[in-house]
TrEMBL record, chains A, B, C:
Residues 262-395 form the Ferric oxidoreductase domain. Residues 34-119 form the Pyrroline-5-carboxylate reductase catalytic N-terminal domain. InterPro entries: Fe3_Rdtase_TM_dom, NAD(P)-bd_dom_sf, P5C_Rdtase_cat_N, STEAP_metalloreductase. It is a multi-pass membrane protein. Belongs to the STEAP family. This is Uncharacterized protein. It catalyses: 2 Fe(2+) + NADP(+) + H(+) = 2 Fe(3+) + NADPH; 2 Cu(+) + NADP(+) + H(+) = 2 Cu(2+) + NADPH.
Amino acid sequence: KETNQDSPLYMSTPLLDPQDPMESVPLSVGDPMVCILGSGDFSRSLSSRLRCCGCRVVVGSRDPQRLPPGLFPEGVELKTQRGALEGSLVFLALYPEHYPSLLTLRPLLSGRILVDVSNASSLKQEGLSNAQRLAQMFPCSSVVKGFNGLSAWTLLTGAYDHSRQVLVCGDCPSSKLSVLALAQRLGFGAVDVGGLSASRALEEAPLLLFPSWRGPLLTTMLLFSFFYLYIALKNVLMPFLDRAENNLHHLPLITVNQALPAVALVMLSLVYMPGLLASVLQLYRGTKYKRFPDWLDQWMCARKQLGLLSFLCAALHAVYSVCLSIRRASGYMILNAAYQQVLDSWVETQVWRSDLYLSSGILGLGVLCVLALTSLPSVGQALNWREFTFVQSGLGYTSLVLSVAHVLFFGWDFAFLPRAYQYYLPPVFLLSLVLPCCVLIGRFLLLLPCCSVPLNRIRRGWESKQNKPERERQENGAVFGDV
Amino acid sequence: KETNQDSPLYMSTPLLDPQDPMESVPLSVGDPMVCILGSGDFSRSLSSRLRCCGCRVVVGSRDPQRLPPGLFPEGVELKTQRGALEGSLVFLALYPEHYPSLLTLRPLLSGRILVDVSNASSLKQEGLSNAQRLAQMFPCSSVVKGFNGLSAWTLLTGAYDHSRQVLVCGDCPSSKLSVLALAQRLGFGAVDVGGLSASRALEEAPLLLFPSWRGPLLTTMLLFSFFYLYIALKNVLMPFLDRAENNLHHLPLITVNQALPAVALVMLSLVYMPGLLASVLQLYRGTKYKRFPDWLDQWMCARKQLGLLSFLCAALHAVYSVCLSIRRASGYMILNAAYQQVLDSWVETQVWRSDLYLSSGILGLGVLCVLALTSLPSVGQALNWREFTFVQSGLGYTSLVLSVAHVLFFGWDFAFLPRAYQYYLPPVFLLSLVLPCCVLIGRFLLLLPCCSVPLNRIRRGWESKQNKPERERQENGAVFGDV
Amino acid sequence: KETNQDSPLYMSTPLLDPQDPMESVPLSVGDPMVCILGSGDFSRSLSSRLRCCGCRVVVGSRDPQRLPPGLFPEGVELKTQRGALEGSLVFLALYPEHYPSLLTLRPLLSGRILVDVSNASSLKQEGLSNAQRLAQMFPCSSVVKGFNGLSAWTLLTGAYDHSRQVLVCGDCPSSKLSVLALAQRLGFGAVDVGGLSASRALEEAPLLLFPSWRGPLLTTMLLFSFFYLYIALKNVLMPFLDRAENNLHHLPLITVNQALPAVALVMLSLVYMPGLLASVLQLYRGTKYKRFPDWLDQWMCARKQLGLLSFLCAALHAVYSVCLSIRRASGYMILNAAYQQVLDSWVETQVWRSDLYLSSGILGLGVLCVLALTSLPSVGQALNWREFTFVQSGLGYTSLVLSVAHVLFFGWDFAFLPRAYQYYLPPVFLLSLVLPCCVLIGRFLLLLPCCSVPLNRIRRGWESKQNKPERERQENGAVFGDV
């Protein structure tokens, strides 16, 4: 009986024993009892959140007198650790290194649910997780890991929003359920992530720093430094060595603005390359049931980040280009051109060229911008699968084509001048076009019926002969039908 | 005994073994058993998600041997379809055209919950939905529709986020509840959307492609092409016919940039027109209890999309205008002007004009930007009703006023020159002002007490005499009080 | 028994009478019965939402005949108020001023759950809240406050999204639970916020208009008007009085664009100042267990808004600066400069200066933009604590440094010219640098080991001697270990 009374899940029961509902209601249903050991920030925030949601809270501190009054919200009972141990749910708001200090309470804690809210002190630790060590210390209590992701701040001010989740794991299902129910009651999305063996992952999660962004960021930096150095070499260093021409002042703005678009374009093509490779692999293997090599899997998972970084570079490029006209230098050029009485005769094609590469650039960036928007969690979730594919692949390729057009229009008139290749270094925009063009061509080839037809068959579960055991071929596509 | 009874997750268990719950707790409560028929992608992703959340999973494949090892996550039992049929929940991860192949299992499936996760193969199909046909085939099992919106991808990598929902429908409430509970356990927001008759809608949902955007997009395109052609006719074609003046190079950039603001402005006024019409209609009818005509309802629902598209056009217009100064052509003009020694004498009013229309434009766009932000799901949900109205209607009209001011400042000096009307075609900005001005005037009139007072009465539930049966008039506003 | 059967919480019932689960299921579990008194918009929307989620709905109107057919969705029973009173849940969809009209139904209502969905008519009312008055009128029914935040619109079209919450409060826990369960069933996030005393807050919530933005907005406006007037005085008024120079046309654009960056910079420093003050205070007090003064707490809570407004100003500044080159005036200057045959001799340092302050500005804004993005609810929630700190504090200071650099580069050449100080007024950019520099220096000092080491100790719970009672010093940091 113990368990139920305090288990938040008990809430529903009084309705169920019709003899005296009104009596047992207020206590058991409305106000499940929660005990928190420790009086730190987390303890404070958790207790006030619990109070808000109408739970009874008892905080156990080593010496309650020592705590300044008003530290805890109203209605929270402050007791000694011994005195606090009522109810089945006990939160341990201590640093794990202090768990041993609780061994004296072992008999009192036995039979209760100990919620371990601790985080790992560092990544890749050896041995057991905090929760597992706790479980060893208190074999007679059932340990549940959870609530550790939440900062004191979130607990206090966080919206009662189910999209803020509490991941919970533990070996005793019923204890887990009490904790899950409590988490839900506090307005969090509560998720059971399995046995206590999962606790290590939960404990380390808060220490991770954008793991999924590391690779893409590195790629961007490498690409950028390559292009930057290449341009610096070609437009700044060589001219200086060659004819002592001082272009140093190109470095902060102009060179950056030549490298950025190249990076953006290559990154964008990197977003769509893994998809192509995957399709080719499936075609070649004649089945979709073989796993992809890991590097490809990882690449696939990094596409979103690659795309966003490509968008970032493109946006920066746009801003830089616009700012070029504000530069002091541009003022000089015009004025001096004017001073030298240059008559810059109107070249129709030049006007067309600049207008075309400007508009293709703007539109390309615009489309990319829509893509970036849909990668916002709340927007992406509002899309169904077909819409998502349409945006990601349809619009994505559109922006790739527009960007390539942008570069081609930009480069058309000096792509074929020998002076564009001085020092035997091809212009940057040519280099940046290689990968995108490969992707576009590859994509085009895959659209040809000779490829697309078998590919679709494979994607629906069909398998080429060498992948099927003999007798399968009689049955008409047994496994074929699986979603 | 108690414990299980109260746990919501227990819903699924009674079907398992009613005799001794206490025993089956760890199993039934903690690890509900789920069976999946079919070994495709969906089956794989679903099974690994189930494992993550600590469920027991048995996958039934036609011949388990055939499946390459490591295809399914650890802990998933691979059996024959017959052998797999344990537990009450059975997911059918097959294409609907293969359901008949299960008829042999009918006796085994009877009494179990069949979850149909299939999507419609095409929109607007005749006859029964997949789920309904399934229910016909297996009258002794209870069919529940659900989980079909989710892609294999979402199941695998999707955050355990309740804002990602699983819509469920079915005719047997208790079965539905088991599926709902499972969905919640997997960390999705689970919603009951009624009987199996709703399954058609669920099955077609994933096939829809931005249904709510079709109308607004069409409007934008029509408006754009109208304005574009009008400007092309006036500034490119006529001058050419008239005095062989070649303005072809206006088409890619300048003409677009003249059409965009017109479109943006008209769209913005279209956002606020239906609200006005609705008020007028209510005033005229003297009640709010009559339904609006459908076209008005639909227009009302399209306001958000109209607004976002208007913002898009406005933003593009801003970018284009800024880019105009980068254009090759603008370089020519300045230089040649300089070459011809033009002394462009300073006209104070001109400076004021340009500064004023620039700032009103920038501010208008800024306000529109805030509006667009609040239409992001996650932002909009954080607003209460009053804040939402303030932003949508208050800020909305502000931006409309600012945009109109922008256009007026822009046009003030050549609105009244005869040459602005050459070929008897009024300038575009005048055309684009018509609708917005109507809206602003209409809005202003509705603010006058003579309209606003009765309107508020009506909105609070008051009804004019002709809408009320005779005797009502004695009672003092009986229904008046309804929220 | 009746009552429970219809309460949505009863879903768990089949477990409760094991004799014949299949029987009692359909009614009790699937279709809880809900009664709505009142036939207004809210009633209509609520009833259709309830129908969608498979609940039985009875609407009680004063005279059902009077209501136009088709006003309510199919399946909703329209009855007289008396006739409608079945089931345990009764929604009152009336304006609170009409509650007394229900007194006649008191006997019928007794024992039922009355859900009060009303909002406060105005902020800061005296006396009891609507819900409390209702509870007084109907002592034998249990009143639950809830669903009031939701607009009819949200009820109708709102996604079944748990991030849209229903806050519920009431004195009878079991009734509250039924309402919470119903809210969840309708696909809302349901949160218990305590006893009926909390109803005042719930009723007033929908009337609040961006309470958290008021302070920061005021600050921005004050700062802006100060800088604007200062600049107007220095660059427009004084020159006019002094040498009758007419710079009036500066006011709309140039002056604004000089004030904006100053405001942005000061605001940004205001974001990081409270954090510094808090650290200093903790160092000085030698403990983290003393509460901060209220003004500091409030300041801390306003940081997000301050940051966003600073970003807004910075963005506007960027747009303005770019637009300056489109201005009519800039055209004049160039042309006339050209006309007067000015030879603007190339000054290398000038080019460097302009390029450097442009790039530092762009990058600073870019970083700030990332910061602004993470303050979107859906994005922020996807970050763990370490990532959030990294972005907010790490990137935040980066952008502060970049912005300061931007200003320094901008001002370097005329910071030391006497004419920059004419009329004894220092240039604006100097004024705007004061606060940011203080923040940066303070931050730097806190990073020195002499400060950072004790600070970290304090943050881990350590307390200086004067804060600890005598004997504590023997025990090795008893409370030290609390999270």
